[in-house]
Design brief:
By secondary structure, the chain is α+β, with helices and mostly antiparallel strands. It is built from three helices and three strands. A three-stranded antiparallel β-sheet has the order 1-3-2, covered by helices on one side. Helix 2 runs antiparallel to helix 3. The longest helix has 17 residues. The protein is elongated. The C terminus is likely disordered.
């Protein structure tokens, strides 16, 4: 699965930090996307965003990616938060027991 993400007003150095951070998750690839703006705007980032990919969408990988992106998303909101929601939904779909309280008396 591949995701293209753009954080609003995120500086280049922080984008590089995000890429380095998510690359530490096993099986995840990340790279910066070029800026697509045709005119220079000092308030915009020097990059167009980043692309994340992973070949094995295990619950652990999706959960960890969701945590990392949520951390940075709290500081620099995602332009389209549906990518983060999709990653979190994938983690829940792959591991439906996660996040639910289990009743030891339940059959």
């Amino acid at each position: 699965m591949n995701y293209d993400l753009e954080f609003m007003n995120m500086p280049l150095a922080v984008y590089r930090e995000v890429v380095a951070h998510v690359r530490q998750v096993e099986g995840v690839t990340a790279q910066l996307l070029p800026q697509r703006a045709t005119t220079f705007d000092y308030t915009q980032s020097q990059v167009g965003g980043l692309t994340l990919g992973h070949s094995d969408p295990s619950p652990d990988i999706c959960q960890r990616l969701g945590q990392i992106l949520a951390y940075y998303g709290d500081r620099y909101p995602l332009r389209d938060p549906s990518c983060l929601q999709q990653i979190q939904q994938t983690a829940q779909a792959l591991n439906p027991a996660q996040g639910r309280e289990t009743d030891p008396a339940a059959p």
